Write a sequence for this structure.
């Protein structure tokens, strides 16, 4: 059976959607701060149309679960839940930091990636990863902390993410890096690649269990149903919660 996945990521300034079919990826990505709610559904419709797929033909929907921008992560959870509920599909939460690590490894050829996203408030979202092919292994913990408090296992790393633009000097004193790229963001294609790993089948969950990951202790995750309920009074998320746009996606003709 040919596996087919839809994936999206709205956790950072970049907004993206992708379809994964047996290793082939169709993707749309745009850096568009504060425009995610307007862009993500048309992107989803576009990649599904290009793949010649209906939502009901998918096996699962993957999403960047965070950490990242509070609003962006919530948009992803709300959209994924709305589509998954309407189509009776499981969902696959994927770390945005791990997705960024995978993309950076493919671009640079480096296998040890130190990801830092600017978390504002003088902090970064931080994680160190070993990448082999399309498998990403977290070394240590994902965390939010001051740049002066990050830790990395011994050895040389390659840095990636907006945190390196903002705090490269402080981060370089805490992690030995041979170089870094700041203007890089997680992409839905890499979210899909990670979700498609057979070893991650245990991560596939019912839509109602989808929750964002913020990492900041002062932000408490609400039960999944709350995202749909609160979305009813929140523009595009309200349409999703009521199933209007989801129904349109499911009825769209190839």
């Amino acid at each position: 059976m040919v596996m087919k996945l839809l994936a999206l990521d709205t956790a950072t300034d970049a907004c993206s959607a992708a379809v994964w079919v047996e290793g082939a990826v169709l993707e749309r990505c745009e850096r568009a701060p504060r425009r995610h709610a307007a862009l993500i559904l048309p992107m989803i419709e576009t990649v599904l149309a290009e793949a010649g797929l209906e939502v009901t033909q998918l096996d699962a929907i993957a999403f960047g679960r965070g950490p990242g921008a509070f609003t962006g992560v919530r948009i992803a959870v709300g959209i994924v839940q709305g589509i998954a509920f309407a189509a009776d599909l499981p969902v696959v939460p994927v770390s945005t930091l791990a997705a960024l690590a995978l993309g950076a490894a493919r671009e640079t050829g480096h296998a040890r990636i130190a990801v830092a996203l600017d978390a504002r408030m003088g902090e970064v979202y931080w994680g160190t990863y070993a990448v082999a092919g399309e498998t990403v292994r977290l070394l240590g913990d994902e965390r939010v902390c001051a740049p002066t408090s990050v830790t990395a296992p011994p050895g040389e790393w390659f840095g990636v993410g907006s945190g390196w633009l903002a705090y490269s000097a402080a981060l370089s004193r805490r992690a030995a890096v041979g170089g870094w790229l700041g203007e890089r963001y997680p992409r839905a294609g890499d979210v899909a690649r990670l979700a498609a790993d057979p070893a991650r089948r245990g991560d596939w969950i019912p839509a109602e269990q989808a929750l964002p990951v913020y990492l900041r202790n002062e932000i408490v995750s609400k039960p999944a149903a709350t995202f749909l309920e609160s979305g009813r009074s929140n523009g595009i998320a309200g349409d999703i919660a009521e199933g209007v746009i989801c129904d349109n996606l499911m009825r769209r003709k190839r």
Residues 97-181 form a domain with the Nucleotidyltransferase; domain 5 fold (CATH 3.30.420.40). The chain has eight helices and eleven strands. The chain has a mean pLDDT of 90. The radius of gyration is 17 Å.
